[in-house]
Design a protein that fits this description.
Largest sheet: 2 strands, antiparallel
Number of helices: 10
CATH architecture of the largest domain: Up-down Bundle
Distance between the termini: 31 Å
Radius of gyration: 18 Å
């Protein structure tokens, strides 16, 4: 029986979107799956109106594809999509890091370091869900510290389509540990205002993510139905 996810307070579309976003990223709605409105209404205890508004929002973010005559489908990327998306994303994150190292305030640096310590605690507890949420907040905080709204909106749009794939890469213990070490280097580079260093760390970090995602795709571990194809 499907687990019921209770939404507390007002069932506004942004609250519904937050729940759906987590379900999509963590794979409880698998890539390529159609979003069944009746089932989701029952699971989230909401009516169709806020659900449909939430789905439209996630469509705009790139987490779902809104297809004619098929409705909303969880985004599913092939190898070429992954390579092209991460190619752009690495460039955007590298630029974010370079600008953030130059423009970040002491308050922003302290907040990112605090998030980093919270993330380390989640890693120690093997709380992958909590770890990923904090990880994503750190990347967004670096992007925000770059103080370039055009860069921020472009980054958010591109990153949305690979969030579930980024989540999957940390399920390998060795890769997860290396990602934690790379995040420590990011925080140190921010503290040192090392623009070039942080740019390089972020680009390499995204290239490793890309390679991990491609390896999982080719092994059939992300889309098991395609393993024999």
């Amino acid at each position: 029986m499907a687990q019921v996810v209770q939404i507390h307070g007002l069932a506004l579309h942004d609250q519904v979107a937050a729940r759906l976003r987590t379900m999509l990223i963590e794979g409880s709605i698998p890539p390529g799956a159609k979003l069944n409105e009746r089932e989701l209404c029952e699971r989230l205890h909401v009516s169709r109106t806020p659900l449909r508004e939430a789905i439209k929002l996630l469509g705009a973010e790139g987490l779902v594809d809104l297809l004619p005559n098929r409705g909303a489908v969880a985004v599913r990327l092939d190898e070429a999509d992954v390579e092209h998306t991460f190619e752009v994303l690495a460039t955007l994150e590298g630029l974010s890091g370079e600008l953030a190292a130059q423009r970040i305030t002491d308050e922003e640096r302290s907040e990112i370091r605090a998030l980093h310590y919270e993330m380390l605690a989640c890693h120690a507890r093997r709380d992958l869900s909590g770890y990923y949420r904090l990880n994503a907040r750190i990347h967004r905080a670096i992007n925000d510290a770059a103080k370039n709204p055009v860069l921020a909106s472009t980054y958010a749009s591109v990153n949305a389509r690979v969030q579930s794939l980024r989540f999957r890469t940390n399920q390998d213990e060795k890769k997860w540990k290396r990602a934690v070490q790379e995040h420590g280097a990011m925080v140190d580079a921010l503290d040192a205002h090392d623009a070039g260093g942080l740019r390089g760390i972020l680009i390499e970090h995204l290239h490793r993510k890309r390679d991990s995602v491609l390896a999982l795709l080719r092994a059939g571990e992300i889309y098991p139905d395609a393993a024999a194809g």
